[in-house]
Amino acid sequence: MEARSPSVPPGLAAGTIVAGKYELVRKIGSGAMGEVWAARHKTLDEEVAIKLVMRGVDHEDGTSADSRFLLEARVAAALSRKTRHIVAVTDHGEDGALGYLVMELLAGESLDQRIARTGPLPVDKVAPMITQVSRGLSIAHGEGVVHRDLKPSNVFVTLDEDGNAVAKVLDFGIAKLRRGQRKATHATQRGFLLGTPAYMSPEQARGQQLDHRADVWALAVIAYHMLTGEFPFDGESGEDLFARLCRIEPIAIRDRCPELPQIVGDFFARAFAVRIEDRFQSALALAGAFEQLAPTSAGAKLSLPPPPALSMLGDDFDRAGLDEGAVDDGSLIAAGVPRKKRLLRPIAGGLFVGAVLAGTCALLSVYFERDPSRTALIAPPAPPSATAPAVPAPDFPTEKAAGPTVVSTENLPAAAALAPRAGRAGPAALMPSSTPAPGVAATAATAATAATAASDTSAAAAPKSARQIDKAEVF
Fold it and tell me: Are residues 219 and 199 in the same domain?
């Protein structure tokens, strides 16, 4: 009989009331870190999942059950608000010697239960699951959280409202936070191994400093396990497994499944590369590359949230050895990468519309400059003069009256410059129209023409009895 972990509360049974409001209904599972029960909220009549642990228990890695539980509650609550691919946490607290964590109750099965039920799966069935897990991991990594224990039993498969499979990441109990981030009093002893050996990265197995790429390695192992039902690192004993893992000697996937194409083997050769810099640098990069192995995966029926905006993605496509131009739309959307070429069409359309508007304005400007009278058609009428009302021009007779034509400098200011200066005018200035003097006829005719033009321009602005012009103003 297996010994019970000190973190597991003893004596729990259906009907037990926790924190005065959660009634235990049935046990879902048990592990080294506690038990999980289905429970009912007494006042809301809501079914939930509640994880229970014993408080005040110290673990071998130097942490306490309280600190781990508080860390898991804070991390899961913060991350589940940003993605549906991490299980939602709704409550946390203490009840005597018990610590409890309340989560959404999911209907479905864990990924390891599905693998055991179905056996190895084809690439096009594995790709959507890897993509969804990568989305949850990308949110965690963006917040500086490393799961450190990613494996099929910590991935739960449920259905959404449309009947589509949805993967959710569980159990952040041994998660690692980046330095400087607010956290519970929780520190693992240096060199102490946490995690499941079969899914550990070489750096994790050696007890070295870890970052988010430890989870990327574990995600590749999950993909390998779903395709083959086996593990890439195996041995007769735990020591053999660790030795092979530390030497980074994976079993080629085509040795397990010869029917798989060579491109699948190339994918895992990069995922399990010796140098960490040669591997996939993010979960989204790995998922985007894996989708290229499944031509039909882009059209698979999935219900995924909008791609998150990630600053950490960087040049992962280049590092992964992928040609961005060869990646199809489905993979780009699933990997959270915007399609840059789609920006060209709206930009070109905007430039074309701007050019048309600019050309239209230029044509209208030239049109009105050539004929100013057209501007008057659209300009508002000028206000009437404030000094004198406008007087219509008089009707001039068509026939000239008989008699002499006299040009007066007092009445014709426009012709004054053509008249003889004062004291020099002779009788020729008063010659009758029938017998004009030589040299004077042209002057008189010119003066008469100027007088007619002057009367046309001044009649509308002043009455006929305008004031007489002083000679000093003319001469």
Answer: yes
